[in-house]
Amino acid sequence: MLIVMDKDATSDQIAAVVTKIEGLGYVAQPIPGGERVAIGILRNPGPVDPALFVDMPGVAQAIPVSKPYKLVSREMKRTDTVISFPNGVEVGRGRFVLMAGPCAVESETQAMTIAKLVKNAGAQFFRGGAYKPRTSPYSYQGMGKAGLKILAKVREETGLLIVTEAVDNESLKLVAEYADLIQIGARNMQNFPLLRKAGALGRPVLLKRGLYATLEEWLMAAEYLMAEGNTQVILCERGIRGIGEHARNLLDLATIPAVRRESHLPIVVDPSHAAGRRDLVAPLARAAVAAGADGLIIEVHHEPEKALSDGAQSLYPEQFTALTRDLQALNPGGWS
Ligand code: PEP
Ligand code: MN
Questions:
Q1: Which of 34, 223, 274, 334 is most buried as measured by Cβ atoms within 10 A of its Cβ?
Q2: Cα of 103 to ligand 1 centre, how many Å?
Q3: What does the alpha-carbon distance between residue 186 and residue 326 come to, in Å, rounded to a whole number?
Q4: How far apart are the C-alpha atoms of 303 and 105, rounded to whole Å?
Q5: Which pTM does this prediction carry?
Q6: What residues does ligand 1 touch, defined as CB less than 6 Å away?
Q7: Non-local CB neighbours of 49 within 8 Å, separated by 6+ positions
Q8: pLDDT tens across 30-87, in order?
């Protein structure tokens, strides 16, 4: 249930609604944005009777929220969420953002070289994992804290914002100190304790779609972040398991309009992990932008044949630069 207050509702009238919700044993959650104050009712085990609220002074409407996800849903918040980062970068409808860099941070020289190249091509964020969730325990697992320190240097030297992955509670604490945007990877999308912890930090989170997750499961994972009070969540479509062997995953671009319909949260697309091979990345990236993505996260490496992870899907810097030119032509909303 969402209680929408009159435009000129007083703070006493708002407080009375909150007190009533809490008196019923539920949680009252103010919803940011919009010109009116709205208060979401959470943790109610069953439907709430709108009659309890509609006659209260200052209440305009009591709207039942039919979806299992509440804070994430467009029923709760009609206006698109726009997330602000340092340097005036914004992510949300009409403010297209480009995140690029290697799969993993491998050395300072590698990270700095790639960062300068992607910055020149127009990226606002540098991506690169210091902690890598790998399918094989024998594959490269990332540099850990040393990698985060390199990312801090990249940020300082280039001014690029940093997006990097936290894989567990321990890395989450460290990543939160260094990252502008904390990535929760596909394999952790339903790691609920990790989601709760990441939500409680109140820092921007990039939530990748799980390999087998339905749209509802993905949005419920975002709800975990928001239920802890975090309003800064960006969804990332990165492909789900398909039947083909021509691509690593099946990029589900229908999620872009579907997320737009169901939720107010921004959605970016990762064509690299969907493709698994570099020749497929640019066409998928262009398709994602044409379908209305709020941004892209793309793997780029200056020496992909030597990359310690995901070299086969990493673009050469020249390919990335060429792609960004195509994207600018496609994106009607302009760049962040
Ligand atoms: C990554 O971004 O490098 C990554 C591991 O992505 P995903 O969680 O989507 O597989
Ligand atoms: Mn990767």
A1: 274
A2: 8
A3: 28
A4: 13
A5: 0.92
A6: 103, 129, 133, 185-187, 208, 238, 270, 273
A7: none
A8: 886 567 888 999 988 888 999 999 999 999 999 888 888 999 999 989 899 999 999 9
